[in-house]
Design a protein that fits this description.
The structure is a homodimer.
Chain A lengths: L5 H8 L3 H8 L7 H14 L5 H8 L4 E7 L3 H6 L1 H16 L3 E6 L3 H12 L5 E6 L6 H7 L4 E4 L10 E4 L1 H14 L5 E5 L5 H16 L5 E4 L4 H14 L5 E4 L2 H13 L9 E3 L16 E3 L2 H16 L7 E3 L2 E3 L5
Helix pairs in contact in A: 1-2, 1-3, 6-13, 9-10, 11-12
Chain B binds a DNA duplex through helix 2 and helix 4.
Chain lengths: 331, 331
DNA sequence: ATCTGGCGAGAGAGCGCTCTCTCACATCCC
DNA sequence: GGGATGTGAGAGAGCGCTCTCTCGCCAGAT
């Protein structure tokens, strides 16, 4: 025996299929007693609308693709940012009864798959979490006639509304904190320069150093813990007298702290460390990490709102969320 | 202008809709030259099948729900297990051209939503990642006539095929390692006892202690870092002379290490620590953590295979994957 | 030359729903 | 009281696809 159809509900309630449909879709032009009869039939039969049939005629699917474009499986699993953003976006979408279709786009092959799927009209909109500048996906998706929003500013200039946090301003605040606490030789471990967050945070660092007449000392990592440790060792080799380091993200900062410890430097006495992201682990490092907090969950929620707004012809204006300096013991 | 339909493809190729459908679905009974003509029409028009229409008639959706039932948003974001499992499952499903619909079930309200959605026939199968014993979802879903598999053994006895790792055996190996290295007073920080992983790992601990004639010293945490620190302090209060601790997961172990450091205990000299999970962070603790590795990604992949097998009437036999002791410096 | 068998292609029903169009009937105003 | 107006319910088309049934055609057997 199969699931009850609208036809069955209508028959049981003694009305036409059209009227049953009106009740299901909360249309107003139904007399109260008929509405009740239909509702009773729905409850008794345990009727649940067939979404395929509905989509077929409405041309809507009520599902949204969440495309995570990140080649490094390592980073995806390790960086809590992804899960936080995914969770928050899911939560917000569920609240408005939309499904989340999760798509991981790591290889060119899966890129093609995602493109096919999206342009196949399977989803009403796309949320894109893409981190790498070389990523062809943002431009590819923007060409499809599906509403697309991005988590973070796309690296290539492309007409996709996005929500981002103030990376430049945050980095400036972090470095300024180091300057104001009297540090003289402030290095940085920058994130990958093909990522907006990597670029912008380095820009912020440079802005402040320029204004405060200090020399910049730069090493580049790839946002992983290990790369932070490697970059830190490199910086110590380049300038053994450095007394502060601004790190492009917390994960690398954790690696940097480890490298500093191994090199016998005390934090913050010998070297002050400022991270970026305020991940959960930042509270538990030795010493706890001074860092820049940006509201990942809020950013994801704002992205959802932006997309939902797009459906109703709303604003395409980017949203920039502020960052906040969290002072702990490392600087 | 709307997307091309199969009708349009058929017209362009000069064949019937039925034949065009045969080509799209790779049926064999089509003459090569006709197949080519249809294929050309498909390419030229950029035809992509409408999945709603297809689902309507085939009663399949080619999408799978990935239901994550975890009330604590904190744990979800923080524990890399979730993202690793999600990533791996996604990857495996994409390989067989199935969509992943991600559903977070945190509140009773969202439970109802998930149940409605699943029983609405929107998905062909369900993968359930449920951690808490009190969770009503496993039994609820098992009653629906949708194939369901579980990541981890469900806490309540319910007829759902599952894939799990050998928690008892792993814990035994970990504690045995402590016994064999001559530790006398081996405490444990157990995970929450309403979770299978929490229970089974405690069972493993007890098994070995019983056989080796040592007293058990137990504190209970909830798998978060903070709870690990709290439990560790409690254990040190209960038995200041303890010389080893087996911790139910790495996240709590990280907290325990921090608490030990604050209490002035050296690891492993004064107290040996063994964790469980081998998360990425275990390599970077001070000192690096001895722990039990279980293949999360493989477990998720096995779960996908189990579900796909179910579609073809395959085995419902649970799959248990082995754990492996990874000896680092903490024990 | 006729018959049979098999295979490739078309016709057409129907999946479950929405939505427009139409109609029946009640209400209102002049 | 009669026509104009409004309101609630039904009829039926059609969304795009799959799949069964049917038919035409050709090869091989008789």
């Amino acid at each position: 025996m199969r699931r009850p159809t609208l036809e069955a509900v209508a028959a049981r309630a003694g009305v036409s299929r059209a009227t049953a449909s009106r009740v299901v879709n909360n249309q107003t032009t139904v007399a109260p007693h008929i509405r009740d009869a239909v509702q009773r039939a729905i409850d008794e039969l345990g009727y649940i609308p067939n979404s395929a049939a509905r989509s077929l005629v409405t041309q809507r699917t009520d599902s949204i693709a969440l495309v995570v474009s990140e080649p490094g499986t390592r980073v995806f699993s390790e960086d809590p940012m992804f899960s936080t953003a995914i969770r928050s976006a899911s939560y917000e979408l569920e609240a408005v009864n939309k499904q989340v279709v999760l798509m991981l786009a790591s290889s060119p092959k899966s890129h093609a798959r995602v493109e096919r799927y999206i342009s196949g009209g399977h989803v009403d909109g796309v949320m894109l979490i893409s981190m790498h500048g070389a990523d062809p996906l943002p431009s590819a998706l923007s060409r499809l006639r599906v509403p697309v929003v991005s988590y973070g500013r796309p690296a290539v200039p492309v007409d996709i509304p996005f929500v981002d946090n103030d990376n430049v301003g945050g980095a400036e605040a972090g470095v300024r904190h180091l300057v104001e606490s009297g540090r003289r030789r402030i290095a940085t471990i920058a994130g990958p320069q093909d990522m907006i967050a990597g670029q912008d945070r380095l820009t912020g660092y440079r802005n402040v150093l320029r204004d405060s007449d200090r020399r910049s000392i730069v090493a580049v990592g790839d946002f992983t813990r290990e790369s932070g440790a490697i970059a830190m060792r490199q910086l110590l080799g380049d300038d053994p007298a450095l007394d502060a380091v601004f790190v492009g993200n917390d994960l690398m900062a954790v690696g940097a702290l480890q490298a500093l410890r191994q090199a016998g430097r005390r934090v913050p006495d010998d070297v002050a460390v400022v991270g970026f992201d305020d991940i959960e682990a930042a509270k538990y490092t030795e010493p706890p990490l001074t860092t820049l907090r940006h509201p990942i969950a809020e950013q994801a929620a704002a992205m959802v709102r932006l997309l939902l707004g797009l459906f109703e012809g709303g604003s395409r204006e980017p949203v920039i969320l502020p960052t906040e300096l969290v002072v702990r013991e490392s600087a």
